[in-house]
Design goal:
Structural class: alpha/beta
Shape: globular
Distance between the termini: 65 Å
Largest sheet: 6 strands, parallel
Strand order of the largest sheet: 4-3-5-6-8-7
Mean pLDDT: 90
Radius of gyration: 24 Å
Number of helices: 23
Length: 548
């Protein structure tokens, strides 16, 4: 039951700031514009620090990075321009289930029309596909209720970004204030894992494919114990990762499945745990053709419906699932013959590891990212290395995978701003690993890193443009040539070797010192110097690589 307390009626701006203070938010991100000046003026009376950006995509990505460490964040945007500019990184946050509240200003209610005034649009319709809740506040509505509801949804059983559109006049007019009970569903479903436990217990070549959701839900350590105890191979889901579901240095962690074709072909029982089982941009129609049993576990039932390839599926907390599975599999201990065959398979896989996919496009990154093998032991890692990301996963050697942050969305330009948010939330140093294309997309995030003087080292893998696009063009040309036609690769728009500013000059333009490692040189010394110096502020290392 909710009771209206007219005596406690306050303006919308004060209710928004009251909510931020009451929920313990220490930072607020944004690039708000003229229609958001009222709450920003009110913010001055609090201890909350406003983190500014010079582009809305930066504001969203910085808040996203912050939320992944702190558990939640709020970002303010300006009407349609701000919402549209931030949409690519909102999509990244949506893909990665990031607990983020996005608030955009809207035209004053008395002036609302059919998208006719400057900056006005159907913001709710724009945000809805990439949020778990999207709503516009009308005058007189209980703003506090909607703020609390948005936060509860964003941090709920299946986390993700939420969106509120607030007309300018709502900030200055009285809003309804109610006292309502807060409803939270914290009841974790305990799944029946008997069938999965039996299949894994009897398998000779079992494989667990883990997504970032397991790390975010708190089950990574249990998976590491399960894998070690029962001799089960673990690989990251193919493609990009938002978090690492197992420590990269664990003895049974084999890196990204994208570079493990032998493992994928030979596994007889497979459990996909907290992942999507879909490749970004180029999904395969089927996986694990040799497996006799395939299970898929995800907290979000919609992600299970996306795959349609599993023999057994369960929508539940993946951490609760792996805890239950670990306890159930005790009855399969002591099967020495099965353990011996598993060990033989794992030894074979370890002997094959490091060979990658055999494609030069991946192998060329190995010597560069090898210099970053202990980056997770030096602080947080924010990964937007794109083509190099799967190779980086294999190169990392830390026994603690908690401080890795990436995005499965693939909307470029996320990394530098996300690194700023991670550094602010954690208070620890960050290594931001980006391709030169991603750096150009996200260069405006360097301003926030510099203005806040954050301990961030940006490592740029510079191959002269968009290496992933060139990779796919070469594959396309090869298919054309097999049919006897086609032009040679032209790399139109993806060859930036002689176009515009160099990567190092872009970074230096934001006042960040840069060292350049020439092609063929070992970048380790430059990276170590940068790590040692970032206590004084941000720096960068540009590692030049071969174009092909």
């Amino acid at each position: 039951m909710a009771e209206v307390d007219d005596a406690a009626a306050v303006s919308g701006k004060r209710e928004l700031i009251r909510h931020l203070v009451a929920t313990g938010q220490r930072h607020l991100f944004g690039l708000p514009g003229s229609s958001m000046v009222a709450p920003l003026n009110e913010l001055q009376s609090t201890d909350i620090e406003f983190v500014p950006a010079i582009h809305e995509s930066v504001a969203v990505a910085a808040a996203d990075g912050y939320a992944r460490v702190a558990g939640h964040a709020t970002v303010l945007l300006y009407m349609l321009p701000g919402m549209a500019n931030g949409l690519g990184n909102l999509y990244n946050a949506w893909r990665d289930e990031s607990p983020l509240t996005v608030i955009a200003s809207q035209q004053a209610t008395r002036h609302r029309s059919i998208d006719a005034t400057v900056g006005e649009a159907d913001l709710v319709g724009l945000a809805r596909p990439f949020t778990r809740l999207a709503h516009e506040i009308a005058p007189g509505m209980d703003l506090g209720f909607w703020l609390e509801r948005a936060r509860a949804v964003s941090t709920g059983q299946v986390p993700g970004p939420v969106f509120l559109s607030i007309p300018e006049n709502v900030f200055d007019e009285p809003v309804t204030v109610t006292n309502s009970r807060a409803s939270r569903n914290d009841c974790a479903i305990v799944p029946d894992v008997a069938k999965v436990a039996e299949a894994l217990g009897e398998a000779e070549r079992p494989l667990i494919v883990v997504g970032g959701q397991l790390r975010r839900f708190g089950g990574a350590q249990v998976l590491e114990d399960l894998s070690e105890k029962h001799g089960i191979a673990v690989a990251y889901e193919p493609g990009f990762q938002d978090r690492l579901g197992i420590a990269p240095g664990h003895e049974n962690a084999f890196g990204n499945l994208l570079l493990l074709p032998e493992m994928e072909a030979e596994a007889d029982v497979v459990v996909v745990l907290g992942g999507r089982l879909l490749l970004e941009a180029h999904p395969r129609p089927a996986w694990f053709a040799g497996a006799t049993f395939l299970a898929h576990v995800n907290a979000d039932p919609f992600k299970l419906e996306e795959t349609k390839v599993a023999d057994w599926a369960c929508a539940c907390d993946p951490a609760q699932f792996v805890r239950t599975l670990h306890g159930t599999m005790t009855e399969f201990e002591g099967q020495e013959a099965v353990r011996a065959r598993r060990k033989a398979w794992l030894d074979t896989l370890r002997a094959q590891s490091g060979s990658g996919s055999g494609d030069q496009a991946f192998a060329s990154y190995a010597c560069v990212v090898g210099a970053l093998h202990d980056a997770l032991d030096q602080g947080w890692v924010v990964d937007e290395a794109v083509m190099a990301s799967p190779v980086l996963h294999a190169a990392l050697s830390s026994l603690d995978g908690r401080r890795y942050v990436g995005t499965a969305g693939g909307s470029l330009g996320w990394g530098p701003a996300a690194a700023a948010g991670v550094a602010i939330a954690s208070g620890e140093p960050v290594t931001c690993i980006v391709g030169d294309g991603a750096l150009r997309f996200g260069a405006l995030g360097l301003w926030t890193i510099r203005s806040c003087n954050l301990p961030v080292t940006i490592v740029v893998l510079d191959n002269g443009g968009y290496g992933s696009t060139r990779f796919f063009e070469r594959q396309y040309v090869a298919r054309l040539q097999e049919r006897g036609g086609g032009n040679p690769p032209g790399y139109l728009g993806s060859n930036l070797r002689d176009a515009g500013s160099t990567v190092e000059s872009i970074i230096e333009g934001f006042g960040i010192p840069v060292s350049v490692v020439r092609e063929g040189e070992d970048p380790r010394e430059a990276v170590e110097r940068a790590w040692a110096a970032r206590i004084r502020g941000p720096n960068a290392v540009v590692v030049q690589m071969g174009f092909e």
